[in-house]
User: What shape does this take?
Amino acid sequence: MDDRIRKLELTAARIRRNVLDICRQRGGYAAQGVALADIASVLYFDEMRADGNGWFHDRFVLSNGHDAIMTYGALAESGHYKMEDLRTINEDGGWVDQSPIEGQLGFEITAGSLGQGPSQSAGLAWALRHRGSDARVYCLFSDGELQEGNVWEGVMFAAHQKLSNLCYIVDNNDMQASGHASNVMNVEPVHDKFAAFGLHSIRISGTDIAELIDAFAQARSVTDKPSVLICDTRLWDGIDCLQEALPMAHYTAKTAVDWDAGLAEIGSVIAALEGVVG
Ligand SMILES: Cc1ncc(C[n+]2csc(CCOP(=O)(O)OP(=O)(O)O)c2C)c(N)n1
Ligand SMILES: [Mg+2]
Assistant: This one.
């Protein structure tokens, strides 16, 4: 188990490096990509099963399109995207979008308009079960999206249909575009709200690999309801020098942070983990 955890920590560190490498070109949602790297590592490299054809048997639905940077960072690590392509993100005429549309590799839905993933992934989970598939559906959405009514319609449907093949993941980072969610429009108590809607609700930090492995396993063991992993991440989690420099940025401008300092810090983490991973 220790080796499994160290390997996933190393993968998470490499995802963080990829996120900085991509975002330093033209800015981006770097703080979220960095904070979500542990979730991405466990999800893509441990939890979701392969389909035998170079892709995944299980499905990942990204609801908050701007968190695509997490998926890009992970799929660069798995070899599905090339870093040289990802570095062109947001370039005029380029094909790599900051908030991708349905059909681009890794993205099941068009998610620039927030709040749609919980219902669309519930529909997907329902359809997969209807067809007799054992594929699981994972859907990431954010605390900002919890302020939208459509989210709760999807959650209600998922609970009513007992979609145990569906696992929601909430990036509960107390941040949205205009400031702290707790100041703009408080979404707490998130755990109790999902439990009241009939979901198996698990609250974790979202940045501890062992805890994430356990939480996903727990979600898989529930057979009569959907699960939700509420992850209390904080922007820039995992790279201290950037967390201190710019704790509150929803969007990181190219000139806003010292990318070299961030890359140096994560570079040392990667080197240390490479030293212990077999
Ligand atoms: C339906 C909709 N309303 C508003 C927006 C504009 N918008 C883009 S990102 C964002 C913040 C949402 O909060 P969250 O996803 O929690 O932000 P983060 O934690 O990633 O900073 C908003 C309001 C949008 N894309 N779609
Ligand atoms: Mg947020």
